[in-house]
Amino acid sequence: MRLLLASSLIVLSFTTACGEGEMKDKPTAEVVTPEPTPPVEEPKAEVTGTAYAADLATSKIEWVGAKITKEHPGTFGKFEGSALINEGKVVGADFSVETATLSSDDPKLTEHLQSPDFFDVAQFPKATFTSRNVVEKATPEGATHEVTGDLELHGVKKTITFPATIAVAADKATTKAEFKINRKDFGIVYPGKPDDLIKDDVLIKLDLSFPLAAAPATPADATPATPGNTPAGAPGADKPKLVAPAKVAPQTTKDVTISDEPVKKGDAPPAKATQGGARR
Fold first, then answer.
1. How many Cα atoms within 13 Å fall on the side-chain side of residue 250?
2. Could you tell me if 51 and 192 are in contact, meaning their C-beta atoms sit under 8 angstroms apart?
3. Which alpha helices (H) appear in the chain, and where do they start and end?
4. Fewer beta carbons below 10 Å: N end or C end of the chain?
C-alpha cells in the first residue's frame, strides 16, 4: 500500500512539473465575444497615424502548447502586418497569419495540428488580429501597454486584451508580449489521449519589429506610395516579400484610419466560445 502511494505521488509530481514549464506564471488574455454592431452607430473617435510594415526577417510569432506530460514549442513561419504610429506612439496594429505555415518540434505533431482536429488549415487558412485600442498601462511583470483587439482564429472571432511591452525609437518600433489563450474559446476542442490529455491554455509569444528609418514622413502634397513597392535602398528591399502585391509591402507607409470603439467589459469571467462554437 505504501509503495503504491509513493508511486502515485511520484507520477503526480512528474506530470505537474512537465505540464507547467514555460507557461507557468504567464498572464492569461481576457477573452470576450464581440458585441453585435448596432443598427445605427454613434459617431466614433478616430485614431490616425502612419502604418509601418513589420520586418519579417526580425519578427517572430511563436506558441507553446502542452499536454499533461510535455510542452511543445512552435511557430508560424509566414505572416504580415503593420503598426500604426502617431507622434511617436504605437496606436494600432493589424496582422494576418498563414496557419498552414505552423510548425512544431515534432513533424508528426505538426501534421496533426494542421488537421481538422486542431487548426484545420485547409478550411481556415488565415488567422487575423486587428487592434481596437492600445493604451499605456504598466504591469508588475514589466509590460508597458495594454492591447485590445479582435482575434479571429479557426473561424471564431473574439475580442482579447493582453499586456505588451511597446517601445518606439528613432529607427524602429518594437512589440513584445507573452500571454495565454484558451483554445476551446476558438472551437479547438480535441482532448488528446485519455492518459495524456492536452491542456486548454496555449501560450502566444510575440516579438515584432517595425523599421522606421526607411519610411520618412510624407509631405501633405506628395503622392502616396504605390502599394507593393519598396523604396530603393530600404532595409529588406532585396529580400523576398511575403506580402501580396495589392497590400502594403515592407518599408512603405500610408496614412490610415482605424476605429477606436471602446470595448465593453462585463463582470462575468471570460466568455466561452459562443460564436463558431465547438466544431466536433
1. 24
2. no
3. 2-20, 107-113
4. N
Contacts 24+ apart (CB under 8 A), 95-99: 95/54, 95/61, 95/128, 95/129, 95/130, 96/126, 96/127, 96/128, 97/61, 97/126, 97/127, 97/128, 98/125, 98/126, 99/124, 99/125, 99/126, 99/127
Going by the DSSP 8-state scheme, the letter that residue 198 receives in this structure is B
Q: Which residues of the chain have pLDDT under 70?
A: 1-20, 23, 35-45, 214-280
Q: Read off the pLDDT of residues 13-47 as tens digits, 9 standing for 90 and up.
A: 444 444 457 767 778 877 777 766 555 555 556 77
Check residue 240 and give its pLDDT: 40
Domains and CATH numbers, the chain: 17-259 (2.40.128.110)
**Model pTM?**
0.65
The answer for residues whose C-beta is within 8 angstroms of residue 70's C-beta and 6 or more apart is 18
Q: Residue 110: helix, strand or coil by DSSP?
A: helix
E-state strands within 41-125: 46-53, 60-66, 71-76, 79-86, 89-98, 102-104
Contact 175, 83 (CB under 8 A): yes
Going by C-alpha positions, the residue among 207, 211, 208 that lies closest to residue 251 is: 211
